[in-house]
Write a structure and sequence with these properties.
coiled coil; Lambda_DNA-bd_dom_sf; mainly alpha; Helix-turn-helix domain-containing protein; 23 helices; 434 Repressor (Amino-terminal Domain)
Length: 412
């Protein structure tokens, strides 16, 4: 029998208890209760005939167990490949195939791998509740994990923190994982990508580019075209923030050329939004407005739509289009109130006070609410931008406070 990866004793015990059978009821005429007890609890070796008789009494097919034993590793491998390829449709198909064998996996040597891969799958499909459940299961079995499995669980926790917007915490863990160098090679490209992603969100754009290029090299080796586009997109944003506009334009040109060749629909709204930002920074204001509107038009979620609306509204503000900006701000504040978009809620409340001519109220709100939040969550670029506004405000009325904020900006 090819059952070395399945704990048949534990499987038999599970099905016996599921059927409310005693050990003596199950083993009557087959083997002794003592023999069955040792087999169930310690997987003590018994002959094939005894196993077949016990399974027959339980109504379990030996063939199904043998098939499961042979296919579990392959099915888990296919799930991982789909997840790392960012192929959500194929990953979901693989997940369902794996779940069909959940019962057998529970009694196999693959149990840790199963929960780790499910954890990553649920993060891929943004099922945070299920991801949290897998996270708790892994925590409970942590003492039984091999060194590489423990490292993988740390890596997945870092991704979880990243999904919650805790980029600094996520980055610290990922850099430790990189230094430990225990992750399987198949995970390296994604590791570099997420390090770059965190650096980008923390506005360390030089580091974002360095790791983005490493990720791009790894993804290119495996011809992972969708993730190549994701990485090009990340690089486009970083190059824009660094003022390397020609480099950014090159990345977006690649994306525009290739995104229709693969299933990259989910990129369209974000890509238009960030391309509009590049156009804005290069002075092509009317084109920037057009692409922000395209981004909203192609948004597939309320979150994507609101991000684009926020970008569009900030451009309206810089262009002095006050009335339209205020109308948008009313919608932004209403729609972000019950969402996770705390940063946008705070910033646009400040903009609202400012555009309505409530200067003192706006500055007090900026100082007491906006800046502490931006500082706490390491939104460095946003912090510096609004700290500069506050320093300029205080320059004429409180020199010490103005110097304090100029110093804070210089320290970053």
């Amino acid at each position: 029998m090819d059952l070395e990866k399945i704990n048949i004793g534990a499987l038999i015990k599970y099905h016996r208890q599921l059927r409310n059978m005693t050990q003596s009821e199950l083993c009557q005429g087959i083997c002794s209760v003592t023999h069955l007890s040792k087999f169930e609890n310690y997987n003590k070796e018994v002959n094939q005939e005894t196993i077949m008789l016990l399974l027959e009494r339980l109504g379990i097919s030996l063939d199904s167990i043998q098939r499961a034993s042979k296919s579990i590793a392959a099915d888990l491998s296919h799930l991982l490949d789909a997840v790392l390829s960012y192929d959500k449709k194929r990953a979901t198909e693989c997940y369902h195939r794996v779940e069909e064998q959940r019962e057998y996996i529970t009694f196999s040597n693959y149990i840790a791998r199963y929960h780790l891969y499910l954890y990553r799958y649920f993060l891929l499909v943004n099922d945070i509740e299920s991801a949290e459940k897998e996270q708790e299961i892994i925590r409970q079995i942590a003492n039984s994990l091999a060194a590489q499995e423990r490292e993988l669980s740390e890596y997945l926790n870092a991704i979880f923190f990243m999904f919650k917007g805790e980029y600094k915490t996520s980055l610290d863990i990922l850099l430790k994982v990189e230094a430990n160098d225990l992750l399987p090679s198949s995970w390296k490209a994604e590791l570099y990508y997420f390090i770059a992603f965190n650096f980008g969100n923390l506005k360390d754009n030089s580091s974002c580019v360095a790791y983005g290029l490493k990720a791009l090299e790894e993804y290119s080796r495996t011809f992972n075209y969708l993730r190549i586009l994701h990485t090009q997109f990340l690089l486009g944003i970083a190059y824009t923030d660094l003022g390397l506009y020609d480099n950014a334009e090159e990345q977006y040109s690649y994306i525009f050329k290739n995104m229709n060749l693969i299933n990259a629909d989910e990129l369209i709204s974000a890509m238009y939004n960030n391309y509009a930002l590049l156009l804005e920074k290069t002075g092509k204001i009317e084109d920037a407005f057009k692409y922000y509107l395209l981004s909203m038009e192609h948004a597939k979620t309320d979150y994507e739509y609101l991000l684009s609306l926020c970008s569009y509204t900030e451009l309206l503000i810089t262009q002095g289009k006050k009335e339209e900006a205020l109308r948008n701000i009313t919608k932004i504040l209403r729609e972000t109130k019950a969402s996770t978009m705390k940063k946008q809620q705070l910033i646009f409340r400040y903009y609202q006070y400012s555009l309505k001519g409530q200067k003192e109220k706006a500055m007090n709100y900026l100082e007491e609410e906006v800046l502490p939040y931006l500082d706490k969550f390491f939104y460095i670029e946003d912090y510096n931008k609004f700290a500069l506004s506050l320093a300029s405000y205080y320059a004429a009325i409180d020199t010490d406070k103005a110097l304090y904020y100029y110093k804070k900006i210089a320290e970053r």
